[in-house]
Write a structure and sequence with these properties.
By secondary structure, this protein is an alpha+beta fold. The chain has 3 domains: 167 residues, BirA Bifunctional Protein, domain 2 (2-Layer Sandwich); 137 residues, 2-Layer Sandwich (BirA Bifunctional Protein, domain 2); 113 residues, Anticodon-binding domain (Rossmann fold, 3-Layer(aba) Sandwich), CATH 3.40.50.800. Helix content is 38%, strand content 21%. Strands 1-5-6-13-12-11-7-10 form an 8-stranded mixed sheet. Strands 15-14-16-17-18 form a 5-stranded mixed sheet. It is elongated. Belongs to the class-II aminoacyl-tRNA synthetase family. Homodimer. This is Histidine--tRNA ligase.
């Protein structure tokens, strides 16, 4: 490389994040518990691709009703627009419609994967994040919606969050009645009002009032245009979200039916409750809507105590599959925000996974003996033990051990010329060594003691390592 060659600064794009082995292991443990609950309820996995044709995703995008806004899109070589999926529900609707003749009905599935939002990133707001969904397609009654809510509660219990959450439930049909009473008629204005109500937890009644009116300016100076309601119209909506009972309609009847099922199954209001402020921001919901709210306090960026808030939600979306087929296809489901839920579990001490143990490292004391070291590694691997030979350029013993430490290795294997002549190996227990280091302050004493190190016969390699790993737990 010449002096004039400009180095590229390594930069992570805004709104994206890297994941380390510890984080991956922790999320994997969490996902295993969620899967177990989904499968107990009779749901099966399915996987759809990251890209869909943009028309498949349609206009049902977060925070916008423009088909090509809020998503990352590109043109195929036949000039068809494709977009990275922004959720896992629209791809499921396409999958179900395409496989309609062969799939069982109702069709019960769960899906896990990354979704992408081309939005302004901010604290805790990413452009790529993982979701974990469960959906029932083809079941029209409130029983399917109630089951979703109960499954959400069971997931939270399985993750150790008993007493720290509530599943809140409402119905879009009830909201439609409120909008009608308020004189809100256009689809665009209805959607803006619903999104304003959905921000109640975030901005409070005063913030929602601004969004129902002319609009709201946030702390950064960005302005969100409001619904343009009069004070009288806004008062009807605000009365409803503050708890004023709505008039009877089909949505109220569905909520009553769901409540009867919660009561029969033993899910009290401390786990699942009807709440008029629940809206959900996506346009495609047509009936019951629900979300999981974590109720414990955390500190925000300003150091203020706030409720942790929502980690997932969903609802009934009877019109989504019907975009692909002429007959009505009822559907309901929910989505968990995996990263946000993992953060919540970390805060409560329920994440359940530590940094994964690294491999056993066979040190390379003599470069001309790499075949012998490779043979040891192969023996360990064949015995089901994670292992590797040191492949770096240094011959320094201390630096090789330091490498094993950084890999979180539990054990290193040492064979120098002296050991080779005697047919023995040195086993260094790095975990015991770290514990002993806390009690030995003198370097000379450390070298003399060689804590955690012992010798074995060469043929005892596998059995000795297995025994040591078992003792380490």
């Amino acid at each position: 490389m010449t002096e004039k060659t400009k180095l590229i600064t390594p930069r992570l794009p805004r709104g994206f994040e890297d994941r380390t082995p510890g984080e991956i292991a922790a999320v994997g443990a969490m996902i295993s518990k969620i899967k177990a609950v989904y499968e107990k309820y009779g749901f099966d996995p399915v996987e759809t691709p990251l890209f869909e044709y943009t028309e498949t995703l349609g206009k049902f995008l977060p925070d916008t009703d423009r088909p090509n806004a809020g998503v990352f899109s590109l043109q195929d070589d036949d000039e068809q627009w494709m977009s990275l999926r922004y959720d896992l529900t629209a791809p499921l609707a396409r999958f179900f419609a395409e496989k309609f003749e062969t799939l069982p009905k109702p069709y019960r599935s769960y899906r896990q994967g990354y979704v992408f939002r081309n939005e302004k990133p901010g604290p805790g707001r990413f452009r790529q994040f993982m979701q974990f969904d469960a959906d029932t397609v083809g079941a029209p009654g409130p029983e399917a919606d109630a089951e979703m809510c109960m499954m959400m509660a069971d997931v939270m219990d399985a993750l150790g969050l008993q007493g720290k959450y509530v599943v809140r439930v409402n119905n879009r049909k009830v909201l439609d009645g409120v909008l009608e009473a308020a004189g809100v008629t256009s689809d665009e204005q209805k959607l803006t009002v619903l999104r304003a109500v959905d921000k109640l937890d975030k901005f409070g009644p005063e913030g929602v009032k601004l969004l129902l009116g002319a609009g709201r300016k946030d702390e950064s100076g960005d302005f969100t245009k409001g619904a343009g309601l009069s004070d009288a119209q806004a008062a009807v909506v605000l009365d409803y979200v503050s708890g004023k009972p709505p008039a009877d309609n089909e949505g109220v009847a569905e909520l009553n039916a769901m409540q009867a099922l919660f009561d029969a199954a033993g899910y009290g209001a401390e786990k699942i409750k009807i709440d008029p402020s629940v809206v959900r921001g996506l346009e495609y919901y047509t009936g019951p809507v629900f979300e999981i709210e974590l109720t414990f306090k955390v500190q925000n960026e300003k150091g203020q105590d706030v409720v942790f808030g929502s980690v997932g939600g969903g609802g009934r979306y009877d019109g989504l599959v019907s975009r692909f087929r002429r007959e009505p296809v009822p559907a309901t489901g929910f989505s968990i925000g995996v990263s946000r839920l993992a953060n919540a579990l970390k805060l409560t001490g329920n994440l359940g996974a530590t940094e994964p143990a690294g491999p056993v490292v066979v040190l390379v004391m003599d470069k001309d003996q790499t075949a012998r070291y490779q043979a040891m590694v192969s023996e360990l691997r064949q015995a089901g033990i994670r292992a590797e030979m040191f492949l770096g350029s240094t011959k320094n013993f201390g630096k090789q051990v330091a490498y094993a430490d950084k890999r979180n290795s539990p054990v290193v294997i040492i064979e120098g010329s002296q050991e080779r002549e005697q047919g023995i190996l040195q086993i260094k227990d790095l975990i015991a060594g770290k514990e002993a280091a806390q009690a030995i302050s003198d370097n000379a004493e450390w070298k003399a003691a060689r804590p955690g190190q012992f010798e074995i016969r060469r043929e005892e390699l596998v059995s000795a390592v297995k025994k040591l790993l078992s003792e380490q737990g």
